[in-house]
């Protein structure tokens, strides 16, 4: 086969040892570099900007801070405070996910077309002008609900937390409400997509027979989609634990608040202990989430196999049984215990004084600042945020690809274990913590933000890239090796083409996430819209803050659309 291809290449005047697509790839790379150059400049990746990384004063400051990490603080009083903050972090994540679930379910039901009676047509949907008006009304309602979901998930949870802290004061209530809103929008979107992707016929048949939407959901959609819905909810809880870690940077309690205090006081010993707690908590959440998802998948497979063995058996929800019952009890206990432990005092949010404070806040917040001078500053901040996210994501993709090779076991078991540990550490430490460290090395500004995003995202992408490499078929690369190709050529032309689409998709998805994180890295002096927002809220300039948050939302929507278009075009 290889000989035939070589002969054909010679027949057409192409050397067999030359990549026929090399010119096209080189042209695409050149175009990408030209397009990225302005963003690299905005993000501080200039000779002068990179020289700050080696500035003796910055190196000495970072060295003194890192040297203070040893020995870690292990005093009994501090460890008790650390344990309390860790429990508070998990409780905030669990309560926030519960609130998000309560918000997501009605939103998902409202936008799911499968459950729309007006879309049925015929006897159920009716004929004529009035049913057509109902269809238009239903579509308008779904569009408005999708807009609400987009706003909820488009504003980063840290921004929501900062707003709630300004309105309701310090404490975990701000974190729980922020997680509830942002994750409510995320859960609603994915819930609706899962329900739409399943077999719609049982639900449609129930609706056509006169059943209500809840009955159609319970008996038509949930039996075939319960496993995916539950698995994604558990995964989002894992993400909420990581998000809760950094809520304290805006005064919302938990481990983040301890870390913020330690960083500001340059107390390296306490920071080292808190970072170790970060790592342990995130890895524990990852492990629990992965275990629960495997249990759910195993229970679902057993249910599917049993149903396949009994052709006449009625469908039942995946996971129902001992595993499902135990999981439900654990989740209910975790949520109830979290609300009890936090003692949020949410009832106090509905008093007359609290309502007056909210009204006063909204009266100022809903009159955004639109002066030309301020809009110019917002536009520049948006460009900086875009540059931070794009450059950070690009650097992370390159670093992740390098780390993925040993993480996939291509250099032996020892290198695999070390690489995976390194990836776990990189992604376990939140971006805001990395930004605090990179700000010491590179100074305040967008370069610190881009480097922080690159370090954290390299851990995420390296893990995903490594898993894609492990799952890629080995036969093409082995065939090239047998034909005489070297290891590099076998990888580039046998393995890389198989995993490249997945790698690209993962990178674009992370860019969508990083644009939201880049918008808040300015809270620790890393430039962009976040830095301007932090200053505006600190000075109680709510009109300016409203304009900045609108810019964050618009930028997030634009990047989501661009990323989705690229994935469809390249997929």
TrEMBL record:
* PROSITE patterns xrefs: ABC_TM1 (PS50928)
Chief subcellular location equals membrane
Q: The ABC transmembrane type-1 domain covers which part of the protein?
A: 86-292, 382-561
Region annotated Disordered, chain positions: 1-21
Cellular compartments annotated? Cell membrane
Q: Does the keyword Membrane apply?
A: yes
Please give the superkingdom of this protein's source: Bacteria
**GO terms for MF:** ABC-type phosphonate transporter activity
Which SUPFAM superfamilies does the record associate with it? MetI-like
What the entry lists under InterPro entries is as follows: MetI-like (IPR000515), MetI-like_sf (IPR035906), PhnE/PtxC (IPR005769)
Q: Which residues cross the membrane?
A: 26-45, 65-83, 90-109, 158-181, 239-259, 271-292, 313-340, 346-366, 386-412, 432-455, 518-540, 546-566
- The entry's keywords: Cell membrane, Membrane, Transmembrane, Transmembrane helix, Transport
Is Membrane set as a keyword in this record? yes
Membrane topology of this protein:
Multi-pass membrane protein
Q: What family does the Swiss-Prot or TrEMBL record give for this protein?
A: Belongs to the binding-protein-dependent transport system permease family.
Q: What is this protein called?
A: Phosphonate transport system permease protein
Q: What is the lineage of its organism?
A: Bacteria, Pseudomonadati, Pseudomonadota, Betaproteobacteria, Rhodocyclales
């Amino acid at each position: 086969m290889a000989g035939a291809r070589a002969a054909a290449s010679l027949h057409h005047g192409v050397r067999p040892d030359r990549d026929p697509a090399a010119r096209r790839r080189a042209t695409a790379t050149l175009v990408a570099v030209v397009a990225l150059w302005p963003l690299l400049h905005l993000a501080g990746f200039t000779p002068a900007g990179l020289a700050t990384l080696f500035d003796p004063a910055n190196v000495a400051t970072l060295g003194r801070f890192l040297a203070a990490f040893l020995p870690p603080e292990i005093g009994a009083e501090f460890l008790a405070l650390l344990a309390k903050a860790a429990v508070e972090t998990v409780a905030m994540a669990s309560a926030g996910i519960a609130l998000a679930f309560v918000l997501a379910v009605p939103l998902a039901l409202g936008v799911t077309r499968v459950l729309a009676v007006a879309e049925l047509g015929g006897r159920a949907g009716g004929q004529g002008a009035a049913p057509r008006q109902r269809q238009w009304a239903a579509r308008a309602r779904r569009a408005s609900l999708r807009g609400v979901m987009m706003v909820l998930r488009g504003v980063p949870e840290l921004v929501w937390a900062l707003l709630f802290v300004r309105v309701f004061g310090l404490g975990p209530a701000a974190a729980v409400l922020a997680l509830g809103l942002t994750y409510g929008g995320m859960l609603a979107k994915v819930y609706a997509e899962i329900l739409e992707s399943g077999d719609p016929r049982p639900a449609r048949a129930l609706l056509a027979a006169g059943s209500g939407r809840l009955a159609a959901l319970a008996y038509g959609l949930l039996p075939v989609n319960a496993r995916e819905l539950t698995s994604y909810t558990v995964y989002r809880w894992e993400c909420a634990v990581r998000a809760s870690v950094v809520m304290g940077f805006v005064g919302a309690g938990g481990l983040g608040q301890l870390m913020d205090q330690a960083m500001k006081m340059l107390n390296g010993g306490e920071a080292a202990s808190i970072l170790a707690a970060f790592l342990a908590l995130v890895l524990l959440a990852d492990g629990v989430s992965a275990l629960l998802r495997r249990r759910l998948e195993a229970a679902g497979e057993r249910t599917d196999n049993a149903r396949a063995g009994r052709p006449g058996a009625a469908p039942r929800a995946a996971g129902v049984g001992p595993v499902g019952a135990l999981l439900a009890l654990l989740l209910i206990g975790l949520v109830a215990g979290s609300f009890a432990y936090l003692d949020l005092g949410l009832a106090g949010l509905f008093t007359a004084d609290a309502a007056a404070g909210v009204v006063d806040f909204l009266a100022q917040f809903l009159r955004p600042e639109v002066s030309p001078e301020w809009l110019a500053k917002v536009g520049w901040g948006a460009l900086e945020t875009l540059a931070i996210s794009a450059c950070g994501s690009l650097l992370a993709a390159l670093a992740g690809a390098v780390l993925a090779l040993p993480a996939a076991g291509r250099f032996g078991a020892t290198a695999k274990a070390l690489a995976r540990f390194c990836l776990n550490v990189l992604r376990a430490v939140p971006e805001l913590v990395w930004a605090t460290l990179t700000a010491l090395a590179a100074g305040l500004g967008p370069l610190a933000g881009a480097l922080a995003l690159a370090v954290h995202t390299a851990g995420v992408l390296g893990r995903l890239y490594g898993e894609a490499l492990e799952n890629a078929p080995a036969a093409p690369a082995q065939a090239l090796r047998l034909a005489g190709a070297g290891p590099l050529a076998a990888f580039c032309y046998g393995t890389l083409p198989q995993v490249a689409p997945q790698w690209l998709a993962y990178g674009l998805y992370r860019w969508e996430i990083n644009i939201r994180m880049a918008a808040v890295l300015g809270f620790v002096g890393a430039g962009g819209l976040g830095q301007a927002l932090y200053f505006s809220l600190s000075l109680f300039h709510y009109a300016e803050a409203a304009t900045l948050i609108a810019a964050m939302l618009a930028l997030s929507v634009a990047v989501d659309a661009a990323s989705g278009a690229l994935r469809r075009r390249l997929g």
